[in-house]
Structure formats: structure tokens, C-alpha cells
């Protein structure tokens, strides 16, 4: 036999009651008659409570009473056959009349005691259980209605009474024996004391009723039918990726429901736990979904962490001073004082130096806790043995819960790593030695970000979400969006990574969408956006959103974003950039970026600064990480110049090849940056710095390949005109090389901390002879690669290969 409990939403409307009856029919057909526990119709308890308050205040409660009646009468009218209606109307009327008398009594006395409040509230469950039992009778034959005030006996703690289990068990067993095999409907939530006065079991107490009855009858299972798919891994309002858990132990469920997850009333677990009866949480509105099972012997679970729960608003009090050190009984005095005054302590931490104690309370209790402490410890305060307690508000608790974390190293590491790399400061920590809950106190402002970051860190089989903010929609930016869109599905399916582009800005406009912008239509969305580009505002918005795993991507060729990197790192956001200016300006700035990224635990990736998508930065880093030492680097790192020399043959004009290189997207936005050697110089400088040399731009020797007049051209048009005007100069060089059977190569070299870039004519014996397109080539001669260098070669410019490099840097963030 099972005990089924239906919550307020399951009996909230004509439609949901219809579903409830279907669920019952199928239960009766497969498992026989259950005992059914019912909550009041959704919203009715609040309505009753409001009525009682109105009556006590001398206000008119009649409209509420009418609303209460009509909600129940509508169900009678719609769901019961006419001949069955009258007796139900009559019984309901009796309830409503009694209730009205009580409310009038409250109005006369202008007083609402907890005892009378419980009595008023009891009518919600009485009406719904009666009603549902009669509707069920029409479909399933005879039913029995039981008012739980006759079955569940408690003390007189009105509002949240304590159950006398021994007496209750006997009453429930007797009742069941009398009606054995019948379909029984019991009112949830309500009970009575020794004198027979109505008491209640606390808000959510119908779950508890089901467990009390289930345990008394040694039932097979307690099924809680509610409006969600079970206990979730985290609050789904804050964590979109939260999912329902299949299985939990009683302790885990208790921990999770204590914090935030209001799926089940925590005391429910106790009777079920004592008798090892499984509790199943199921969704009335999705009856095929299997829900969550809370059981003694969890079978499938291998997860160390079951769920992440949270309390949104808490305050902490910090008490410190030398007078506490080594003083036995100090915390005893403190906590018994708070207990005496009914102040519930949510979390406690004390340093082993015993110099300070921090504890968390509900914000409403903080001030009275402080005052009580000041009274109790007046002497110690005067003698300056302790400091006056300090209250801190706007805090939240995040707790990871799971019994399997016991004796498993690394669980706390994952938690603190996820928090740390997202810049979330931990104010206090608590873990009991039972090791099934680690709680941290963080700023309220960081809670959503923390929950998502921690969820991503533990549920690694789910998608990792990267929240990306992109500057630049030119050649590289737009190609990146195209690639991200094309590979979106593959990335999610194969790699479990979801890249959400949250913000986009070019030099004209900017646009944001916290859910992620649609990359198929980003251009239209940006064009239609009413927000003018503003770099400071862009960054401010990014910080304000405070999203986990955030990445700032700079796909511009501008100096403006560079000056903001430091601020971005300080906001615990990673930076990915193809813009070389940042790394190739002053050495001091180069160093600051690395120091800040390290300090804030975020990534700084710039693979495309050298050789576009070719793995050059990464290769150099790996060589050095594994203890190798660079002796020499020789390289062709200008894709544009490489392309020019690979195609400047026969009767082709120099001017035309440069134009073609620009059309193919190899050049910088301004091609003079390539042909002046500036772009190449930046790359060599970045490589030299990454190889450990402290160099500035002025330390690099560059041989010009252009006549002075081209270098001095003030605009791009003028520059092209000068290329045409100097055609003979280029022809001479070309013919000279061709006559000697050689090719032109612009080669950079780093050796002994010196960097030079020179124009050379090389023959087919030279390793850099065979190149085509925009090929880059780089040869690393190191301690380990001494005889034959390590060579990386391939297209080193172009939108596709560059965007691909940026893409790969993005997905490596946080990896
Ligand atoms: N073309 C290539 O093969 C490679 C290019 N790169 C780098 O890629 C970067 C971008 O190059 P392209 O896409 O060709 O440039 P582009 O000129 O086509 O696009 C630049 C974009 O940046 C935007 N922008 C400029 N200043 C801005 C600001 N302050 N705020 C927001 N947006 C701003 C512009 O509106 C434009 O959308 C450059 O730094 C370049 O060095 C790196 C490796 C290879
Ligand atoms: N303009 C650059 C592109 C890559 O950084 C080049 O020509 O190499
Ligand atoms: Na690269």
C-alpha cells in the first residue's frame, strides 16, 4: 500500500483535479487502494490567513469568504454529477458557517491567537479533502474521508506542533484497520492536541502528514505529487541548467530542502527515514516523468555532489577579541543566549585561534542578536576583551550537498576553484565533520553567478557555458560569429561547450542579450540597436551582469580596448585577443597583463597575435614549460609580405599584389602596417618577450622593404599611388632575385636576446624557400631541437584561420 499526497496546485483547479483523478485511477488499478493525503486548494491557506487578519483588524472579510465558497462550489458544480452534489454542498456549507462564526468571534475580540489561527486554517484541508473524496467516489467507488485532527496528536505548539508519535501511530493503525482496503482521504497539515484543539504541523505540513501516516502503516512508498519534476540540482530560477535528481538519501534531501529547495517539507524525512520508506516526488502536471526518489539505499548515484542549495538573504555577525581565546564556555553562553531568545543560527564558524566567531542569522534577527550580545557581554565589552559585534548584510549562503563527498579529496577544491576564478569572495566557510555539506557565505550580488559557476564545475557532463563579450565586427569578428554559429551544435554535442555571445560592439553600435545573441542575425540586431558604442559602458554592462565564465574578446585593431584590459582582468574576466597592440607596446604593460590575469585566476589568450591560427604561442609556451630553452627563432611572420613575395613574379606589378593581399584579408586594416614591417616587428617582439626577453620596440632592428616615399604616404590611397610610382624600384629587386634563381624572403631572427628583421634572397637550399599563399614559417632551435629545429608552417593570415584561432582560444578558457 502507498500513501499519496497531493499538494495545493494539484487540487488547485478543475483541470488539475481531473488529472489527480486519472493518477488515482491508475494507482488503484496497479497497486490497489492508497491512502490519499490532501493539501488545501492552491492559495486557500493564504486566503484563510488573510481573512483571519482582516477579522482581527475589524475589517470586512466577507468578499474573501465568498471567494472561498465559490472556488469550492465551482468544483462541485463542474466535477460532480448532479445527484451527488447536494450532500457535498451541505457539508461544505456547514464548514463555511462554522468558519464565519469563528471569524466573527475574532472580530468581536479583535484578537487572533495562534490557537484560533490554526483553527481557521484547518478549514482549507477539510474542504479540499472532503471534496476530492466525493469526486473520487464518483469514479472509483466508496471512499472514506478522515479528518486528521482525530488521527494525529500533538503538543500545543500552535503553528508548528510536535507530534506524539506513539499515540498517533495507534490512532492511525486503528483507523486503517477499521477501513482496511478502502480508498481513504485524509486532511493534510492539521492535527489536534490532548484537549482536542486543532493544531497544525507547519507550512508544508501536508507532506509531513503523509510521512506520519505512511510510517504508522509501514507503507511501501510515500508519493508526494507536486508541481515540479522532483528535487533539482539547484534553484532553477537562478540556474538554467539545473535538472531533477533521480535519487537522494534522506540526509541529502533534508540538507537540500532545508536550504531553499522548497520541494518537500524537511520534517517529512524523519518518519520515512526511521522506517526506511522511500519518498517519491512526482509532478502531477507531467505524470509520466519518474521524479526523484529519496531512499535509504541509493543505488545509481555515483555523483559526489547531489545538489547546490542556497539561502538568498542572510546576515552575519562577527564577534572577536582576545577575551574569547581559551575561554571555555564562551560560545556556550553566546549560543544559549540566542537560543533563549528564539534566534535561529543558520551557520557558525570559529577560527582555531579562537579569536573570532562568525555566525549567520536571518536578516530580521541580526539587530536583536547584536543587542542581546551587547547586554550579555557588557563587562567583557567594557574591559575591551571583546569588540562590539559587527553585522554584515546583503549576504547569501551557497551550500554543496552530497553524502558521497565523505572521504573524497578534491571536492572542496573544485568549489573554491570555481568561486575563485570567477572572482567571488568567500566571507565564511562551514563544513561539518560528517562531510555532507560545505557551506560558504558570499555576497548576495554574486549568488547567481556563483551558483552557475559551481553547477558547471560539478556537473561536467553538462554543457559548460562561456559568456562572451566581443569587440570588433570586421573581417575577423564577423568570421568568428559565422564559425561559432556553424559549429554551435557540434561544440555542444561533442565537447559540451556552449558559447553564448552576450555583448557585441563595433565602433558604431553595441548590443546585449543576457540569454545569448542569435549569431545568425547578429548584424541586423546590431544595426537596429539603439545603443551607440561606448567602450566604458560596454565594460560596465559586462561587469554588472556578473556572469560566470565570462570572456572579453578583442577583435579590433584599436588601441582603445587595450587600456581597458586591466579593468577586465580585475573583474575576473578572461581576455582573448587577436589585437597585437596590447602585447607589443611597453614591456611594463605586457607584464601587467600577465600579473593581473594570474592574480585574478583568469586566462589571457592571444594565439593569433603571431601567425594567426598557427600554434606558435602555444608551442613556445609548451617548450618552455617542459624545461626546454630557446636558442634561436627564425621566422617569416608577415602573411601579407609572404603572399606578396610568393606572387610577385613575371609581369605582375608590386602594387597589384599588395591590393590582392588586402582583398584576401591578409593585411592589417591599414596595409601600411604590414609593409612598413610594423606588424612583423610586433610579432617578433611578442615572441621574444614570451621567450623571456625584456625588450622594447626600439630594440628591434628592421630593414625597410619600401622606399621612403611609400613609408611617408599619409593615406592608404596615397600609399598605393606611391607603390605605383615606385614600380621600377620593385621591378629591379624582383629581376635581381629571378636572375640569381632566388626568392625574396622577409625574415625575422631572435638570437642572444637580439631581434632583427631583414630582407633576404634565398635559394632552394634554404628551408624558407618553399612557401606559398600567405604562409608563415617559424623554426625554433632549442636545447632539445638543436640538430634539426622544430618547424611550424602554414597559412599565417586570413580571416578564416585567424577567427579559428580566436575560436580555439575562447573554448580553452577555463579548460
Ligand atoms: N587579418 C588577419 O589575418 C589577422 C588579423 N589579426 C588582427 O585582427 C584584428 C582585426 O582585424 P580586422 O578584422 O581585419 O579589422 P577590421 O578593420 O576589419 O575590423 C575592426 C573592427 O573593430 C571595430 N572597432 C574598432 N575600434 C573599436 C572600439 N574602440 N570598440 C569597438 N569596436 C571597435 C571596428 O568597428 C571593426 O568592426 C587586428 O588587430 C589584426 O591585427 C590578427 C591575426 C591575423
Ligand atoms: N596582417 C597580418 C595578419 C596576421 O597577423 C599578416 O599579414 O601577417
Ligand atoms: Na598563432
Sum this structure up briefly.
With 815 residues, the protein is an alpha/beta fold. It folds into four domains: 2-239 and 252-294, 3-Layer(aba) Sandwich (Carbamate kinase), CATH 3.40.1160; 307-458, VC0802-like (2-Layer Sandwich), CATH 3.30.2130; 464-609, NAD(P)-binding Rossmann-like Domain (Rossmann fold), CATH 3.40.50.720; 617-796, 2-Layer Sandwich (Dihydrodipicolinate Reductase, domain 2), CATH 3.30.360.10.
Largest sheet: 8 strands, mixed
State the CATH superfamily name of the largest domain: Acetylglutamate kinase-like
CATH topology of the largest domain: Carbamate kinase
Q: From the 3D coordinates, which CATH architecture of the largest domain would you assign?
A: 3-Layer(aba) Sandwich
Number of helices: 30
Spatial separation of the terminal alpha carbons: 51 Å
Shape category = elongated
Strand content: 15-25%
Strand order of the largest sheet: 3-4-2-1-7-9-10-8
Subunit structure: Homotetramer.
Pfam family, one: AA_kinase
Family: In the N-terminal section; belongs to the aspartokinase family.
Protein name: Aspartokinase
How would you describe this protein?
Its cofactor is a metal cation. The protein is built from 30 helices and 29 strands. The protein is α/β, with parallel strands linked by helices. Strand 12 and strand 13 form a beta hairpin. The radius of gyration is 37 Å and the shape is elongated. The two termini are 51 Å apart. The mean pLDDT is 94. The structure holds 1,4-dihydronicotinamide adenine dinucleotide (NAI), ligand LTNE7NMQ and sodium ion. The site of sodium ion (NA) has 10 residues, from loops.
